[in-house]
């Protein structure tokens, strides 16, 4: 892919896909940790902080949604790449099909970075049926219960349809479970029917909103002691490579 990256956006959001520094500050108010997040184009500000695993918001971004949905790659990797995505987002599918494999091959599988996915189901209120993106995300965690999170994640993107075409349903999601080799389909069905993991999906959505995100895919690339970088849109591999190289060289 070349040229301007593509992203799915919520209504009223900006058309400016961008690579930005992520500035995070934390303060206490009324006994609650209040996270103030601002996104700026380069430059510097006295509100800027570097990424630290001790910062509550950084720790939240970097934490797997559940044990069965652990990040791909070595737990000791210095860099964490977090994708906030929607399973009905065509731009997320574009990243999945055109960029992700090369990113995994060159950075994740070599131990330089780990890759994590967080749900940001912004298409719940845009596409039909309502809440289908959240339902697909819930299904991924039901698959995680049986050790098939990433296989199910891949199955969703491999079977995604163009936005506007209805393809997510409970029956389809249950068939996907069979496709990836879920050993106990009844357990998966019970999990999905009960909306066991609706809370996890909602928490991820709320985190993305708290961070001010309004498009999918949105990526946060972090290394302890350095300023996190945000990428918005289905950037080609070369852009990820540049950000990651700059992080390694202390230039990000």
Key features?
252 residues; 37% helix; 8 strands; 19% strand; alpha+beta; Glutaredoxin
CATH topology-level name = Glutaredoxin
As for the number of domains, it is 1
Query: How much is the radius of gyration in Å?
Result: 18 Å
Strand content: 15-25%
Residue runs with pLDDT of under 50 for 5 or more positions: 10-17, 21-48
CATH superfamily: Glutaredoxin
Coarse structural class:
alpha+beta
- For the record, what CATH class applies? Alpha Beta
Number of strands: 8
CATH architecture: 3-Layer(aba) Sandwich
What helical percentage do the residues reach? 25-40%
User: What does the main sheet amount to?
Assistant: 6 strands, mixed
The rough form would be described as globular
Q: Note the total helix count.
A: 9
Helix and strand pattern = EEEHEHHEHHHHHEEEH
- Order of strands side by side in the largest beta sheet? 3-2-8-7-4-5
Average pLDDT score: 84
Terminal Cα span: 23 Å
Polypeptide structure, described:
- This protein is an alpha+beta fold and 252 residues long.
- The chain has a single domain (18-248), classed as Glutaredoxin (3-Layer(aba) Sandwich), CATH 3.40.30.10.
- It is 37% helix and 19% strand.
- The strands form two sheets. A six-stranded mixed sheet has the order 3-2-8-7-4-5, sandwiched between helices.
- Strand 7 (218-223) and strand 8 form a beta hairpin.
- The longest helix has 13 residues, at 132-144.
Please provide a brief summary of the model.
The protein has 252 residues and is α+β, with helices and mostly antiparallel strands. Helices cover 37% and strands 19% of the residues.
């Amino acid at each position: 892919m070349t040229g301007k990256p593509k992203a799915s956006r919520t209504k009223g959001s900006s058309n400016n896909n961008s690579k930005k520094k992520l500035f995070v500050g934390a303060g206490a108010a009324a006994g609650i940790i209040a996270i103030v997040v601002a996104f700026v184009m380069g430059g510097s500000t006295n509100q800027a902080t570097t990424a630290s695993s001790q910062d509550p918001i950084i720790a939240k971004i970097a934490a797997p949604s559940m044990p069965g949905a652990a990040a791909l790659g070595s737990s000791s990797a210095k860099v964490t790449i977090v994708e906030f995505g929607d399973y009905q987002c065509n731009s997320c599918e574009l990243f999945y099909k055109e960029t992700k494999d090369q990113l995994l091959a060159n950075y994740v599988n070599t131990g330089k970075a780990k890759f994590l996915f967080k749900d940001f189901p912004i298409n719940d209120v845009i596409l039909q049926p309502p809440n289908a993106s959240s339902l697909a995300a819930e299904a991924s965690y039901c698959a995680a219960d049986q050790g098939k999170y990433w296989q199910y994640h891949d199955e969703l993107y491999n079977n995604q349809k163009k936005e506007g075409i209805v393809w997510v349903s409970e029956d389809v999601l249950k068939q996907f479970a069979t496709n990836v080799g879920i050993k106990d389909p009844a357990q998966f069905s019970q999990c999905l029917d009960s909306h066991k993991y609706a809370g996890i999906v909602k928490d991820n959505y709320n985190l993305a909103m708290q961070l001010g995100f309004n498009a999918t895919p949105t990526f946060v690339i972090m290394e302890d002691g350095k300023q996190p970088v945000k990428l918005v849109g289905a950037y080609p591999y070369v852009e990820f490579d540049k950000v990651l190289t700059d992080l390694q060289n202390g230039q990000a």
